[in-house]
Design a protein that fits this description.
Elements (H helix, E strand, L loop, with lengths): L26 E8 L5 E7 L6 E8 L5 E6 L6 E7 L3 E8 L5 E7 L8 E3 L2 H25 L5 H22 L4 H8 L18 H10 L18 H12 L4 H14 L3 H14 L9 H13 L7 H14 L12 E3 L5 E3 L7 E7 L4 H17 L4 E7 L4 H10 L6 E3 L8 H5 L6 E6 L4 E4 L6 H15 L1
Parallel strand pairs: 1-7, 11-12, 12-13
Antiparallel strand pairs: 1-4, 2-3, 2-5, 5-6, 7-8, 9-10, 11-14, 14-15
Helix pairs in contact: 1-2, 6-7, 6-8, 7-8, 8-9
Length: 467
Amino acid sequence: MNYYTRNALFAFLLAVVFFSGSSAQGYRIEATIKGIKDSSLVLGHYNRNHTLFVPKDTAKADSEGKVLFEGKTDLPGGLYVIIIGGNKSLVELVYSGKETNFSFETDSTDVIGKMKVTGSPENELFYTYQKRLKSVSQEIQALNKNKNADTPAKVKTLQDNFKVYRQKFLNENPKTFTAQLLNMSSDPEIPAAPKLPNGKTDSAWVFNYYKSHYWDYYDFSDSRILNTPFLEPRLERYIKSLVVQTPDSLIRDADMLARRATNKDVKNVVVFYITNQYENPKTVGTEAVWVHMANKYYLSGEMGVSEDVKKRIADKVNTMKDLLVNKTFPALSLVDPAGKKVSVQSIAANYTVLFFYAPTCGHCKEASPVLKAFYDKNKAKGIKVMAISTEHNKEEWASFIKTYHLEELINGFDALQEIDFLKKFDVVTTPTIYILDKDKKIIARKMPVEQLDDFLNYYQTKIARKM
């Protein structure tokens, strides 16, 4: 397992600090790990997924493998890991935040099997479960290694027996953090689904049941869930796979999750994660989710960002609010190579592709032949392309048009140098593409030039089905 500090993808929110409250009672974790000696060890916890690790303490094992982690300030609760050799996970520990002084001994050749814990009922439970799981896994591996006709039935018996053991274990220890961790790592059990009139299983019922019980074992009032590897992958799966990728559906579920997160730290992470996903989303039209989250949680003051960050978010919202899918594209007037006025609104076309580019941009030079091929293929279908230079060197603009054979396109140039393409049209990078319908309503934005054909074919098919 590699660990590192990850920069926030959502640049506006660098000032947000996620913290976990704790009392100042300190901690003491004493260990004897046979098989290691004179080795530097790091104690830390997971941070929302398996790839993020937050180091909390370092210590050196002596010649007998004895090591002591100790501090005067308490550690936040979570699932902890002791790492050796820079990135090798050695021991996992349940740290509930209540058991702050305990010890264990084990052997590096069989950490789970040789584990003995003193002073921590949580870790005694955790390793009791891990030992049973390891034993069953080894039995199944042995059966599969020497397969015969009875192997599937024997494997199923082992799996069924472990399932019964697991449920009994959870039922007997419902209030423990160990049980909470085990529940968080698994999916909800789905009961037998009703049958449709044709005798088939009602798959819609199965999906709806699964989605409605997806968060059953997540306590959003408990900040300890942030220091486990489960939250972020589960959020990603829910948002990307269980929610229809339309702004209305995404916004509804995002607000539901934010309401559920009654702990401030958990809410910060949930809101941040969702907001971050939809600033530059992969699904066409879902930038509206970012605008909603920015308005409701950041500009309202609920997330507690600085005034400087809030201003930058407000500027971005002000730019994007009129450039979302289903909005009418703002007025844009330019001049063509002959010096005549051309405007987006005056283009008569079934679909208009706006190609914002910089003549000096390498990616724009690569994209232009693809754009030209798309235009040649589709111009007879009432599709027009307006290529708009975001730079103000007239000679370079004219040369670009000639070099890439874009004379048949509608070419626009900001001769008066009045337009801030970043603030007015969200041209953060070039090329930037918008697709408009015949009424100049935006139907796609930030579309890669290579996907123009596929998108318009899909969109026209979708419209035809509605008619």
